[in-house]
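Data card: per-record layout.
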Amino acid sequence: MKKEIHIFLTAILFFTRIPCPKWVNHNPEYLKLSSKYFSLVGILIGGIGALVFYGASFLFPVEVSLLLSMVATIYSTGAFHEDGFADVCDGFGGGWTKDKILLIMKDSRLGTYGTIGLLFILGIKFTVLRIIEIQHIPLVLIAGHSLSRFIATTLLYTHPYVRDTEDSKSKSAAKHINIPSLIISGIFGITPLFFFKNPWVFITIITMYASKLFLGFKFKKWIGGQTGDCAGAVQQLSEIVFYLTIIALWKYI
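The structure for this 253-residue chain is written out next.
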């Protein structure tokens, strides 16, 4: 139990900017195991966003509350996944060989493709959340953050890690995940869906995984696998797909 707590806190330390005890560090052994708690971290981050939205909604219009909620989640993660998404946009937008793509993705500078990608994905996220009925937004946020992180975890199982560098902290967390850990991540990721009254909400798993297949195909074709940035891109895209699917379900079912 103590070891599992340590692993979970390592996941919080790595995937967020939430303070952890000093005895928690980026131990490669624990980092390698931390991905199974990726979805649980998503529940935590989604919960922060939901709490901020709920509290702010008593004082501000829904648009302001949503923006504050988005700021809270991005601040809590240090834009961890948004940064990965932007790097993927830059790498695959500006590179035409595996080495060039990986080199661009490793560059800390934000390029044109990454800037445009971030503007669109944040704009779409705000727009689709604004359409959802206000009383449902907190649960939608929690489910979107948790399930999208599970979908990102599946990428670690289906695609090999392709970087050769040993100095990256993300290498241990982004390497292959075993089936038991994937199942644990799936349990945490799917759990919020059971709190929805409409059982059709489970269709989101299919649409979100389809978005992962789309990106996974490109990753496999161009670089032969995945990096931590690729997982971040899958998380961001599948989160958007979750919100879009929710809107479609409530409109037509």
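Known properties of this structure: Residues 228-252 form the longest helix (25 residues). The chain has one domain: 2-252.

See the next section for split statistics.
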